Amino acid sequence: MARVYTDVNAVLGPAWYEFESTKIEWNVPDRYEITRRIGGGKYSDVFEGVDSSNEEIVVIKVLKPVAKRKIKREIKILRNLSGGPNIVGLVDVVRDFASRSHSLVMEYVRNADWRDIYRSLTELEIKQYLFQLLRALDFAHSRGIMHRDVKPGNIMYDREQRKLRLIDWGLAEFYHPGTEYPPRVGSRYWKGPELLVSHRTYDYSLDLWSVGCILAALVFRKEAFFRGRDNEDQLLKIVKVLGTDSFEQYLFTYNLCLTNVSDELVQQHARLPWSRFVTAENRTAATPEALDLLDKLLRYDHRERLTAAEAMAHTYFNVVRLQTPSNPAECFSDSGFYST
To answer: What general EC class does the enzyme of this chain belong to (predicted)?
Structure first.
């Protein structure tokens, strides 16, 4: 059971989280003109485009054929999170009846490629980047939603404007205590241990592991701190840093069993201090506060990880902390939906 925002969806009721019966009113795509392809993946192709009604640049996410329920879930979640801090805005939903394709039209944010910035962000920029990401996640969690695919590729960051948006909510899901969720979500380098050992009753804390991986990448100047060849090797990379003893305790605590694992994974590995990864190149970013925050995010046991709100309150962010409510649910209660 999640330590925070446990009963949000129960309080708000089916009208908030039930998406399969949602009727989507699709508009025609005539007002949007595609100008160039900017990315894509397993579930969509992504294009930059122009809204001819106002000449504004937009992002057009053309969905590949997937289950209707998945499309409805993403739209429902985006609408529920509309206006949230640092969360990408949904502009329109359109359907081309000739090709029978569905597209989501999204807010455009100029993006600095991760490979261009992970080595060069200053300590202050790292703090600003992470704090904005945590604000987005705390807002989503306070509304009962897990992102489940937090990674640099799903973060649009305008470095010049210091503007961040968390995008791609296609794998996001509503959190209900005790529910078993599929472990095949997320992207390998940023996957929490619970996914790698098929622990299905995970919660919002899954997203905080991913934040910890991003922090480690930025602080230690690595494109990805844990970089496994496959899921088993990914778990091994984690165990070689966090150690075997606490991993075995984690498995015991949640009655988890590993099968068909490599000999190397069952060998004893001592926990490595975070200072082991500090070099002359990354020393200015790898401050004691950064390493302390990292240590409190990258924990096997999801219940030991900081929540997004707790991470935002860490001394690491003193210089960038905004004058906003410490708990976004306080804002939520203003709209009459939920109060703590």
So the answer is: transferase
Q: Which of 97, 287, 314, 315 is nearest to 208 (CA)?
A: 314
Distance CA 46, CA 50 (A): 13
Helix H or strand E encompassing 37: strand 32-40
Q: Structural domain boundaries of the chain?
A: 8-107, 114-334
Tokens 């090709």, located at residue? 99
* Residue-level pLDDT at 46: 95
The encoded tokens of residue 130 equal: 């992470």
Sequence letter at residue 154 = N
Q: Among 205, 177, 168, which residue's Cα sits nearest to residue 309? A: 205
Active-site residue list = 149
Positions of the chain with pLDDT lower than 70, given as ranges: 322-340
| Predicted pLDDT of residue 65 | 83
Binding residues, by number, are: 61
Q: Please give the structure tokens belonging to residue 268.
A: 């004893």
- How far is the C-alpha of 55 from the C-alpha of 71, rounded, in Å? 27
Tell the CATH topology of 114-334: Transferase(Phosphotransferase); domain 1 (1.10.510)
The answer to whether the CB of 60 falls within 8 A of the CB of 105 is yes
Q: How many CA atoms lie within 13 A of 77 on its CB side?
A: 27
The answer to whether 243 touches 232, Cβ cutoff 8 Å, is no
DSSP state of 123: H
Q: Are 55 and 117 in contact (CB under 8 A)?
A: no
> What span, in angstroms and rounded, lies between the C-alpha atoms of 22 and 17?
10
What value, to the nearest 5°, has the Cα angle with vertex 329 and ends 324 and 334?
85
What would be the CATH architecture of the domain defined by 8-107? 2-Layer Sandwich (3.30)
